[in-house]
Specification:
With 249 residues, the chain is an alpha/beta fold. The protein has 7 helices and 10 strands. It folds into 2 domains: 136 residues, Cobalt-precorrin-4 Transmethylase, domain 1 (3-Layer(aba) Sandwich); 106 residues, Tetrapyrrole methylase, C-terminal domain (Methyltransferase, Cobalt-precorrin-4 Transmethylase, Domain 2, 2-Layer Sandwich). Helix content is 34%, strand content 24%. The strands form 2 sheets. It has a 5-stranded parallel beta sheet with strand order 3-2-4-1-5, with helices on both faces. β6, α6 and β7 form a beta-alpha-beta unit.
């Protein structure tokens, strides 16, 4: 039975310059690289991965396999159960693709942002049959890219920072005890639920990429523009990856 090693390589927001030298080395020793497909409307995501490989992959022996991923059942009232089922289905897709390449031992996936931060790749890899060895190679996180693009520090002097999700911001409000919160995975502009006059916002979509969009200012002024801008960007590109930082005024 062959021994499989899975490498989860952080690629930042899709800019090839966001990959570390360690990540480039891992790409070039891989026997097989899996590229997930998420439907025609999100083909740019796969295209960004292809572009990265076109720039950094020099090993002609490396095989590339595109795999169609299942979609999470958003109608499931039990969110955690729905996510578990979804991760099981994705792991099955990975396993099938790896089994179709019997000579591959080193398998790599290019992970948006960083594999350790609000990403499920580690959990999915843990569901693969045989418990293959998994290693994680960090890249530039979306948080680093956001603060760099806006040229702002992540934290206030001596103050804590909370990294949270749009779902938690909507359901629980701004994290108590924090001056700054970074909000990820927010498809519904949860900042609308906050007291608008109390916060400043630094928002970015496609951060670090060619079509990067940035907005910032008092939340009561910048918020409506961000809502309109992100809707137009999603319609134009078919997908949207955004992130924002909120700070008490």
């Amino acid at each position: 039975m062959r021994e499989i090693e899975i490498s989860l390589i952080g690629i930042g927001t899709g800019n090839p310059d966001h990959i570390t030298l360690q990540g480039i080395k891992a790409i070039n020793v891989a026997d097989l690289i899996l590229i997930p497909l998420k439907g025609a409307e999100k083909d740019d995501l796969a295209g960004s991965r292809r572009q990265i490989l076109g720039e950094v992959l020099q090993n002609a022996a490396t095989q590339i396999a595109e795999i169609t991923l299942p979609v999470r059942d958003a109608a499931n009232p039990d969110y955690r159960a729905g996510v578990d089922d979804w991760h099981d289905a994705i792991a099955a897709c990975w396993h099938e693709a790896i089994a179709a390449h019997p000579s591959a031992q080193k398998v790599a996936l290019l992970i948006w942002g960083d594999p350790s931060l609000y990403d499920s790749a580690l959990r999915i890899a843990g569901r693969l049959p045989g418990a293959p060895k998994t290693r994680m190679i960090p890249g530039i996180t979306a948080i680093q890219a956001l603060t760099a693009s806006h040229a702002i520090p992540l934290n206030q002097i001596g103050a804590p920072v909370v990294i949270t999700t749009g779902r938690r911001l909507r359901d629980h409000g701004f994290p108590p005890g924090a001056d700054t919160a970074v909000v990820m995975l927010d498809g519904g502009c949860a900042f609308q639920t906050l007291p608008q006059a109390d916060f400043d916002i630094w928002w970015g979509a496609y951060v670090g990429m060619e079509h990067e969009i940035l907005r910032h200012g008092p939340l009561d002024q910048a918020g409506p523009d961000i809502i309109d801008t992100r809707a137009k960007a999603r319609a134009q590109h078919g997908w949207l990856m955004d992130i924002y930082l909120l700070r008490r005024r």
